[in-house]
């Protein structure tokens, strides 16, 4: 019985919501957990028979199993999506998850770099080597566009509109967005394309990938992590830095400079404005710290 509901839910997630395979599988695992819980009760209820109290007991059950609040919150999100599907497809007539509350989460503020620290990291690149020229273009693009590391490694030549100052980014769930790109990043991408990339023996199927390793293949995520870790160490910076820190810094610096929150949301590719709003707190903290350090009456 539940297999039919899960099959329909899977198709809805793929076709209506255009989610990635990983996201779809995560949602389906949430429903598997729900059915496992229902099997521990007196009967395996259908979606139509499930009430709010059943879902509340389910969340208590997963909490008792040791699941962290963040995981519980994600499951609540999965349940809400499932019952939204059930309503649309008339599997149910009410949504028992409507009043279901997720655990309150304390969102940690991300580490960010100030502009001088970013300049210091980039300055450690050895531009006398081909890899150095490529790495300069990589870090300038990361900071200029606020990309996720997977978006950077998958960036294609056909997605560059450098003459008008934009790139097309394929983000989570294969959703596309246009992101502005700064003049420094454009300059070093063009240098990389003209003086370095043309000398690489590119492997079949990789011709449209912008950033390549010396063997002509797409860079891995771990390669980006390692090259950045090496540069951070040379720069003498002790913060916990990853490629995602450049994305955090991109957003924070925009908001500190007065950028509109929804514009930053669009550039980052966030579906939920609340995800972007955390950077306003980071920006405020940095402004407050700068005031305390610099103002004579602080």
* Poorly predicted sequence stretches spanning 5 or more consecutive residues: none
Q: Based on CA inertia axes, which overall geometry fits? A: elongated
The helicity comes to 55-70%
User: What amount of the residues lies in strands?
Assistant: under 5%
Going by helix content, strand content and strand pairing, the class is mainly alpha
Largest sheet: 3 strands, antiparallel
DSSP helical segment count: 12
User: What is the tally of beta strands?
Assistant: 3
In N-to-C order, the SSE pattern is HHHHHHHEEEHHHHH
Main sheet strand line-up: 1-2-3
Calculate Rg over CA atoms. Answer: 23 Å
Average pLDDT, rounded to a whole number, is: 89
Measure the end-to-end span.
66 Å
Per-chain topology:
Elements: H1 2-15, H2 21-40, H3 52-64, H4 69-88, H5 115-123, H6 130-145, H7 149-153, E1 160-161, E2 166-170, E3 176-180, H8 183-196, H9 221-235, H10 243-256, H11 261-268, H12 273-294
Antiparallel strand pairs: 1-2, 2-3
Folded structure, characterized:
By secondary structure, the protein is mainly α. 57% of the residues lie in helices and 4% in strands. It has twelve helices and three strands, in the order H-H-H-H-H-H-H-E-E-E-H-H-H-H-H. The chain has a three-stranded antiparallel beta sheet. A hairpin with a 4-residue loop joins strand 1 and strand 2. Helix 5 packs across helix 9, helix 6 crosses helix 10 and helix 10 packs across helix 12. The model has no long low-confidence stretch (mean pLDDT 89).
């Amino acid at each position: 019985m539940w297999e039919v509901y899960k099959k329909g839910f899977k198709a809805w997630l793929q076709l209506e919501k255009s989610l990635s395979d990983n996201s779809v599988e995560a949602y389906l695992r949430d429903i598997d957990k729900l059915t496992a819980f229902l099997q521990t009760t007196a009967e395996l209820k259908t979606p139509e028979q499930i009430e709010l109290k059943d879902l509340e007991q389910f969340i208590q059950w997963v909490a008792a199993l040791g699941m962290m609040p963040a995981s519980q919150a994600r499951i609540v999100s999965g349940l809400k999506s499932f019952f939204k599907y059930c309503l649309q497809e008339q599997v149910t007539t009410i949504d028992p998850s409507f009043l279901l509350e997720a655990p309150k989460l304390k969102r940690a503020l991300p580490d960010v770099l100030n502009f001088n620290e970013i300049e210091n990291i980039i300055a450690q690149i050895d531009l006398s080597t081909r890899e150095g020229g490529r790495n300069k273009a990589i870090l300038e693009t990361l900071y200029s566009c606020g990309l996720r590391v997977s978006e950077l490694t998958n960036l294609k030549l056909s997605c560059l509109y450098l003459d008008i100052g934009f790139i097309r980014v394929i983000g989570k769930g294969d959703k596309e967005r246009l992101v502005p790109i700064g003049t420094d990043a454009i300059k070093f991408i063009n240098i990389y394309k003209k003086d370095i990339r043309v000398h690489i023996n590119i492997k079949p199927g990789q011709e449209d990938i912008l950033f390549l390793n010396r063997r002509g293949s797409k860079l891995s995520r771990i390669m980006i992590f390692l090259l950045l870790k090496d540069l951070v160490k040379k720069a003498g910076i002790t913060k916990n830095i990853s490629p995602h820190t450049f994305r955090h810094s991109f957003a924070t610096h925009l908001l500190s400079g007065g950028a509109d929150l929804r514009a930053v949301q669009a550039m980052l590719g966030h579906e939920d404005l609340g995800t972007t709003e955390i950077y306003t707190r980071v920006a405020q903290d940095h402004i407050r710290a700068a005031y305390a350090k610099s103002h004579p009456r602080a």
